[in-house]
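Contributing new records

If you add data, match the layout below exactly. Sequence lines come first and carry their own label; structure lines follow with theirs. Keep one chain per record. Anything else will be rejected by the validation script.
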Amino acid sequence: MQKNTKKEALKAAFPVTIPVLTGYIFLGMGYGVLMSSIGYGLRWTVFMSLLIFAGSIQYISIALLTSAFNPLYTLLLTLMVNARHLFYGISMLERYKGAGRLKPYLVFGLTDETFSLLSAVEPPEGISRKWFQFFVTMLNHVYWVAGSALGNIIGSMISFNTKGLDFVLTALFVVIFIDQWRSTKNHIPALVGVGGSLLCLLIFGQENFMIPAMVLILVLLTALRKRIDREVRS
């Protein structure tokens, strides 16, 4: 491995993560402000963002921290909210081959946005795949922690109405979806994802649609895999 391999991989990874940078800073700030509003300071906010690094469940954890402690409910809720990562992980098995000692961190850092980037973007020619994947993951992690810390600091200094701050998570997903739609010609996976989610939402309701939707999407993508591959190659 050449001495500048890591440096070049970092240079290649940074531009790819800029959309996530802008989203995570504001999304993290929202989380940090909300943490401050319930009395949790900078250390707790940074600690949770470093070790949990899952935006949706971290927002939900704010309500959990202010309610009666129920470990079983917390476990089941976390599993349901983050069940989609089981499917993300399965689909990334091939891409993470050869990652070696970096693989545990790549698995830990596989957020929705990181998955979107790593599944859609190939490293430039001559750039180590595993180090490119590592720096994309690490940079996104840094953005999230920095945004959380900044938000907590601001929240401790300024008091304001925090209603609606959690909507930035949805907004970030929409922006990434639109960006990927515009950058790829093959829209089958996106249509399957949207269609499968809407169908399960109608059938199972808002509280229970997530896991059935992910199962349905996995089944449909598996059934349509050959067609998707043909579309990508054409």
